[in-house]
Request: fold
Amino acid sequence: MSLFGYIQQGGPVMYILLLLNIIGFSLLFWKIYVVFQARKNKETIKADLKSELKGVNASDDNSVGLSLIKDSIHGVVHQLEGGLNSIKIIATVSPLLGLLGTVIGILSAFQVISDQGLSDPSLFAGGIAMALITTVGGLIVAIPHFVGYNYLVSALDDLEVMLEKELLKEVFYK
Reply:
């Protein structure tokens, strides 16, 4: 059976999962590009932050200077994090949608059994197939989005720590 055949057999839940998959991968690829560009342009980001922090130096109260640096870096990283919550939501909701399809498929199978009886098992096999296909579909959508989300969060955390260390070194320990 072709991929489109599986999607059709899975019913409306599979179309929703397909749409979420397309949206999620678009966001994932975009955020990966944005994060790699930020890493590549780290020196430009540092220069912008240093110009924003003009006047902060070792003679100031260290806690105020440190707080200003951390807030500035946090602002930059927060901008880079835009869209990550959507990826996280897709990773979280997809298995639940798969479960919804499972329940709908099993309900359909039981409805056929109650209407037709157990004389022909092929009659209720469609509901069972729908249940299994949507479960698999939900997991297929969720797993790469979950992995991608965690990778991007880790990469942004690393970038934040790296910027913080380097800026602190340059501003306070010239």
